[in-house]
Amino acid sequence: MCGIAGFFSSQIEFKAGDKYRNILYEMKKSLFHRGPDDSGIYLGRHCGFAHTRLAIRDVNNGRQPMIRTINNNDYVIVYNGEIYNTEILRYNLKSEGWHFETKSDTEVVLLLFLQYGPEFVKKLDGIFSFAIYDSGHDILYLYRDQFGIKPLFYTWLDDEKSIVFASEIKALFKYGDVKPVVDRNGLNEIFGLGPARQPGNAVFKGIKEVKPGNYLVCTKYGITKKVYWSLESRYHKDDYEKTIEKTRYLLEDAVVRQMVSDKEVPICTFLSGGIDSSLVSAICAMKLKEKGEILSTYSFDFAGNEKYFKANSFQPSQDAPYAKKMVEYLGTNHTILKCDYDKQAELLYDSVDSHDLPCMADIDSSLVYFCREVSKKHKVVLTGECADEIFGGYPWFHREEFLKCGTFPWTPDLSPRKQLLKQDVLVELDMDDYVKSAYESAVSEINILPWENEIQSQRRQISYLNIRFFMQTLLNRMDRTSMHSGLEARVPFADRKLLQYVFNIPWDMKCRNGLVKNILRQAARGRVPEEVLFRKKSPYPKSYNPYYEKMLIEKLKKDIKDGAPVLSLIDEKKLTDFMAGEKDYGAPWYGQLMAGPQMLAYLIQINYWLNKYKIKIEL
């Protein structure tokens, strides 16, 4: 995994002087955390690239930017990702007469472009974002994987004749003409949808992200957006037993393909004791055992939770006992990491730094801590992320009130979000209309099959929204928190073939006899113990220590005293009353975990974000 950045303009001579070379160095420096092993820049006549590298494959020879010169024309690539079908693609290219100078997947991607042209991306199986510059035709291409697992932001200048791009927003600001401005739309993203975002929207005015399954073609005539992959609604032909068998095959195949790395770069897994991470860990442990190796696993918890945890409908049980059962069952080298409430609060700021945006508050900051600790021994981790989105694990797949709510089911009520805003800000934002428009736009993308009844159509809609919205938020969280410490996180459940197949499995199979995630559980038989196999879903853990809430309140009070920029948007009296009132731990305002205390943490993040980035607000 890596960090990439750069710029392109057919109207600017970048080679003249040191200005643009210095910009590339600054962009590269801002992304160093994503790739601390190596770095490089390329500066051509109309294009500049910067790269930081986390060396996973061909550690010695895979340096970037990578250049191939043909007929005096340079073809240059900066690449972030892992291609899981690299060896097949390499074999095919060799049969076409291409020779290789490295064993890296970066070179495979570049030669595929040269052999097949821009649509070659359809052949890639993996997670990626990359830029390719064709100097002969003076064209820049920007690509992003099918589900947006790897980030890629951009902004255009000079009437769309110049473009600046980067893995993270912070690098864009190193190009002097890009400024941190947030307008009405951006504030609606933060307060109305946040920590989610509409696909393609990066909150800052004028900054976008390449949408998943898309690529951009940048020429002297402007920017053209191309869709190369989209989720398809199809009739499911397989019977129940065949569906279980194929799901098992597709998942195990995805996990095994994603275990790729050089021998000196061992993998590990996150193991919570839930069905998702347990199954991924079981497959990894089995494959490593065949080679005489033992899998390393990690589980997470919070100091004091054994004392303060209270079960609720969203979080019915703690993970620790189940993680212990899986460790004993698999025989892994296991490490339990615990985060205390001081560290969790302290890292709220690092979370914003990693996203360049307010994010999932302490749900995010704790993962920053855990990933930092894991990165001290490992560079690659496989996770169980994304299983709930495709197998129907969340409450909103099952409850009628969510199916018929007519909005994003993880945010069915905007009242908790609106209660603290100033009245004039509320009027200006018109949050209800903005969220309604975002929802209707998303729903319009879904292809409903003609024979589906109302309930089936609603479940397909919710499945699609989960994949394109809710899952994207969690993928963003996983990438930023892991890469903030140079840890590469892989998500086998977001495999293209697996996800496309499971998306179309009928609900009466997915939830047969009312069993949540039934198909996944049946596919996991024999891989995990029965008590884990049929454990009721419990999401990522969070702190229930009451002292944590008190600490957040003290932090907010100090911010207010110091002249908090968030007070330009938040009513101070409403905020004071909120801090003094009792917080609900079991009624989320986003997802399953973000309840009363997380609203406090989210406001702390928003205030820090406004202050650090010196954001200009345009209303």
UniProtKB/TrEMBL annotation:
EC number: 6.3.5.4
Pfam families attached to this UniProt entry: Asn_synthase (PF00733), GATase_7 (PF13537)
GO CC field: cytosol
Ranges of residues in domain Glutamine amidotransferase type-2: 2-221
Reaction(s) this enzyme catalyzes, per UniProt: L-aspartate + L-glutamine + ATP + H2O = L-asparagine + L-glutamate + AMP + diphosphate + H(+)
Signal peptide start-end: none
InterPro entries xref list: Asn_synth_AEB, Asn_synthase, ASN_synthetase/amidase, AsnB_N, GATase_2_dom, Ntn_hydrolases_N, Rossmann-like_a/b/a_fold
UniProt keyword list: Amino-acid biosynthesis, Asparagine biosynthesis, ATP-binding, Glutamine amidotransferase, Nucleotide-binding
Site note Important for beta-aspartyl-AMP intermediate formation, residues: E385
Positions that bind L-glutamine: D105
One GO process term, biological-process aspect: asparagine biosynthetic process
GO MF annotations in UniProt: asparagine synthase (glutamine-hydrolyzing) activity; ATP binding
Annotated catalytic residues: C2 (for gatase activity)
Cited SUPFAM superfamilies: Adenine nucleotide alpha hydrolases-like (SSF52402), N-terminal nucleophile aminohydrolases (Ntn hydrolases) (SSF56235)
Catalytic class of the enzyme: ligase
Pathway connected to this protein: Amino-acid biosynthesis; L-asparagine biosynthesis; L-asparagine from L-aspartate (L-Gln route): step 1/1
NCBIfam families from the UniProt entry: asn_synth_AEB
PANTHER family: ASPARAGINE SYNTHETASE, ASPARAGINE SYNTHETASE (GLUTAMINE-HYDROLYZING)
Family membership: Belongs to the asparagine synthetase family.
Stated name of the protein: asparagine synthase (glutamine-hydrolyzing)
Organism annotation: Butyribacter intestini
